[in-house]
Structure formats: structure tokens, C-alpha cells
Amino acid sequence: MGPLPASLSSSPRKLLDRNSSKLNAVVQRDIKSSLLLLLVLSTVLVLSVLYSSQADQTGAQSGGIQVEEKCDMSMGKWVRDPRGPLYTNLTCPTLPDSKNCQKYGKDPGHLFWRWQPDGCDLPRFSPERFLDVVRGKRLAFIGDSLARNQMESLLCLLSQAETPTLVDRDALDKFVTWHFPVHNFTLMVMWTEFYAHTVPVPDTNGKPPIPFDIHLDRIANLTDFGIVYAIRRVVKAALQAIAVCKDCKSNLVTFLRTYTPGHHEHSSWSSGGYCNRTRPLKEEEISLVSIEWELRNTQDEEVRAARETTGSKRFGVLYVTKAMMLRADGHIGAHKDKRWVNASDCLHWCLPGPIDMWNDMLLQRLTEDSPPVV
């Protein structure tokens, strides 16, 4: 199989090992102790998880989250917004230095835009409203560094209404838990790079195969199915696993966040590529027949198929692909501490920045059906 396109170089990696994965242990433990699970599947999938406490059982059973899209937020344009972001790099107490682009001199022009859907409005994020909706629950983002990027954005947004307490953080900063005591709300990130895991296939004698690194035979006959085929398979497998999960509560809700591209220009991350734009791209500068859009449509198709299979509304989508294809100006780029990595980061997003819109969209999805889960 040939190399992946440069824009897809941060494809997802391992999610679950059924026997020994720390992530699997964490997820299973929390599912059994809770009533509502919201999954926002990152990079190509983001997995976010919202759990209700025991005290919410009656309310959760009488009015679960519905994820039918009342407003098509996938198509629209970025318009000027003189109000700027809800927080700054000085007012977010949890802002990681790696996302603090203003500290390292980034032009602030990227901060004064908002996403305007074509047929409706996307309300400005309200931290008070979000905390009311998730009172007594737990929300986890499960994915790679882009899932963590979105969680860090949400943490900054919510900290404008209530200061969170750090509960737990592993040595590698891959499993982190915060708590908002006034609302009894827990926010987590659980690191994973893949949403699929390998399973050893026994040989003809029923014995484990002999360990090997790689075996190539008849190289000329190898079929390259392409990245879209691979993504479809892994998305389908992840959603099907959730759909048939016997340990998951019946009101489990899953949101899949669609693919977002990097914007390295003139080369790749590791060979001098950069992203120094200071305003969003124009409509004619992106293509909706690109591989990014094909990946987005593949994800959408699999979510729709999962809905039909389960006969429920437990699967939703955060359609952020087009919006983020336009925001080549919102990446970290060279605006960071170069003592650690000198290359321009044109994949992750500054805080504050365009990624805050993902949480505008998440809140809208949680509240657009009545009555919302409280």
C-alpha cells in the first residue's frame, strides 16, 4: 500500500484492546456506573462521552438526547465578528502553552470570525447553558491529539463560568480528568490514536502464528484499497461495536466529528511546510470533491447506516469539515515554543481559535431538541 496523502498523516491509531487496554478498562468502568454516554468519535474520528449520575436516572429515561439535525450547520461561511472569542489566552486558567499562539506572537486577526450556517444561526457558546445541560454527568473526548485539542477548547470555554479542579492526570498527559464541583460535572480526555485493533489469526493447527514484523509476497499483486476504504471499515466497526454494546446503557449517544485537514503549504510537517495565512480561505480556494470531502461523506454514510441498524437516534454528527477546510489561518504554525519542536504545526488549532466552533456545534446539538437532558 502506498503512503497516505500528506494531509492525512495523523490518521487514527489503536483504540481498544479488549484484554488489556487501559482505555478499555476506563471506559467499561465508567459505563457501568452511569446512565448516559455521549460519544463524540478524533483526527478522522472524535469520541466524546457523557455520563449521567445515578440521581439523573428518572430524567434520563423520560427525555433522552435526540440527535436529529434541526439545523444543517455543515454548509455556511465565516463572517466577521467584532466581539472576538469568549475567552483569551489571559482569561483561561487551563490553557496549555502549546496552544497559546498569542503568547508567541500570532496575528490576532484569526480570532474575529464566526461560523454562519447557510440556513440557520449557530448561537454563541454559553458556558452557563452547557454546564446546566451536563449537570451531574461526565463527558469524555476519546481520540488523539485533536480530540484533546477540542477538550482543551471546551475547558477554556467552561472555565469562564466555573473554575474546574484537576482530578487526575497520567504521566504522559494522555488520560486527564477535570471536575466542575458546582455542577458536579466531570470532563475527561482519553487518548487513543486508532479506533481498531489487531487480532492474531491462528494457523491451520489452531496455534498462534509465529511472530513477524512484516511479510510481503508477490508485491506486484498487492491491492491498494485506499484511505477512504480503510476509514469506512474502521468507522463501521466502531459504530457497530457501540450499537451492539451490552454493557452500554440504552440511552447511550454517540457523536462523530467529521474529518478536518491540516494546511501545510509548499511541503509537509517534517520538511519545511508552513501555514502563515492571516484570514480564512475563500470558497473558491477549497474543493468539495477532494479526499477530505470524500472522507467526510464516508463518515456521514456510516453514521446514517448505524442509525438505521439500531432503529434509534443514538448517533449524531458534528459536521465541521467544510468550516475547517476554510481556516488555514487558525493553526499554531510557528507560534509556539521552538525548544521542543521547530517544525510548523499546521494540524492543531490555536486557543482561542476556530476550533471553539466545534463546541458551539456540540452545545447546539445537545439543546436543539426539547426537552434537553438535564
Structural class: alpha/beta
Q: What would the average pLDDT be, to the nearest integer? A: 79
Rg from Cα: 21 Å
Number of domains: 1
| Count of runs of 4 or more consecutive helical residues | 8
Q: Outline, from the CA principal axes?
A: globular
Count of β-strands:
12
Describe the largest sheet. Answer: 5 strands, mixed
Secondary-structure element pattern, one letter each: HEEHEEHEHEEEHEHEHEEH
Distance between the termini: 48 Å
- The amount of helix comes to 10-25%
Instruction: Tell me what portion of residues adopts beta-strand conformation.
Output: 15-25%
What is the strand arrangement across the widest sheet? 2-5-8-7-6
Q: Point out poorly predicted stretches.
A: 1-38, 53-66, 370-374
Keywords:
8 helices; 374 residues; disordered C terminus; alpha/beta; five-stranded mixed beta sheet; 12 strands; single chain; disordered N terminus; 25% helix
Give the SSE map.
Elements: H1 22-32, E1 38-40, E2 47-52, H2 57-62, E3 76-80, E4 113-117, H3 127-133, E5 137-143, H4 145-158, E6 165-169, E7 175-180, E8 185-191, H5 226-243, E9 253-257, H6 291-310, E10 315-318, H7 321-325, E11 331-333, E12 345-349, H8 356-367
Parallel strand pairs: 1-9, 5-8, 9-10
Antiparallel strand pairs: 2-5, 3-4, 6-7, 7-8, 11-12
InterPro entries: TBL, TBL_C, TBL_N
Domain Trichome birefringence-like N-terminal: 69-121
Membrane topology: Single-pass type II membrane protein
